[in-house]
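Quick one, tokens below:
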């Protein structure tokens, strides 16, 4: 899976869960990596994903 902001591959743990988070609700969930979470605020992330 790739980050929807920086387009880099998101690492997964042994249970195939991403090391990041999903932003959005319903079918419009977007994956965001940990590096993007550290460098941007929640408002900035939501604005970039629109």
């Amino acid at each position: 899976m790739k980050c929807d902001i920086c387009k880099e591959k998101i690492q997964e743990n042994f249970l195939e869960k991403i090391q990041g988070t999903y932003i959005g609700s319903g079918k419009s969930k977007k994956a965001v990596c940990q590096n993007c979470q550290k460098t941007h605020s929640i408002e900035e992330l939501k604005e970039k994903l629109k």
